[in-house]
Amino acid sequence: MRFMLFNGVLLAILFFLPFGGELRAQDEEGQVAVQRVIFNRNASLTGDTRRWLETVVELNVSRPAGEDVFNPRYVDNIQIDLYISFDVSRGDVSRTRFYRSSVELPTLERGRHEIRFFLPPEVIGRDRITSEPSTYLVQLSVDGLRQELSSDARARILRRDEVLESFMRRVESEAGANDGILLPIHLTPFVNERQYFRDMPSIRRSNVR
Asked: The pTM is what?
């Protein structure tokens, strides 16, 4: 369904609601925003030569919503949903694999923060992944309200409404087969690596794919 009068905004509202949560009002100032998404194809553990694909979601936390907040330096109940896809091929066979992962943070202080996800080396080897994901998207929610999807939170190709709609339809139908493969840092061995756990925010354990 398309409503061009709103330049695709209403389309996004109708499309994202089935994934859970209520979209926040368009005229509210954002509390949490994606600054950029970085991919590292050479992440490795100490003493291990195998390579993991690391996804770093950089967040900027500005302020909590409303006037009646307990501590205005913190924003509570932040959920991060990451979706990525890879175009893979072997011989004459080509396919697209979709992965998703989700974490919930009980609270974050104002400022910059990094949230990390990892794709394991066995999957990279199987699919011969030698490049960054072909497509990616990060959806943020605060207190169950989905934040407006910014251009920095998605691949350039997903800035077109029809492509975004197609991508999310395929995520919904195909990513479930790969649930539990793309992992947030606290479910990987990287949680014990000093350079990572030193700045790792606390993660609520009850809401993880």
From this structure: 0.81
